[in-house]
């Protein structure tokens, strides 16, 4: 359990350091459980743009081995 808590803390710290748009996308997607289509509408971007940004951020998270 300690390992999971440490990973969770590390992920949260990483997300907080993301640029504003990336941070919003991740929070809306994984905290508010909002579909990417709704996130795009709420933030005023195309769905494809939000999908691309979401994919980029997920790759970043995996790269830092969080």
TrEMBL record:
GO process terms (BP): DNA-templated transcription initiation
Write the protein's name: Sigma-70 family RNA polymerase sigma factor
Q: What Pfam families does the annotation carry?
A: Sigma70_r4_2 (PF08281)
Listed SUPFAM superfamilies: Sigma3 and sigma4 domains of RNA polymerase sigma factors
The molecular function terms of the Gene Ontology recorded here are: DNA binding; sigma factor activity
Q: Where is the RNA polymerase sigma factor 70 region 4 type domain?
A: 10-59
The source's superkingdom equals Bacteria
């Amino acid at each position: 359990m300690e390992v999971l808590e440490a990973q969770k803390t590390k992920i949260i710290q990483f997300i907080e350091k993301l640029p504003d748009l990336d941070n919003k996308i991740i929070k809306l997607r994984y905290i508010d459980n909002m579909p990417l289509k709704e996130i795009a509408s709420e933030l005023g971007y195309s769905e494809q743009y939000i999908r691309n940004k979401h994919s980029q951020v997920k790759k970043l998270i995996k790269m830092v081995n969080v």
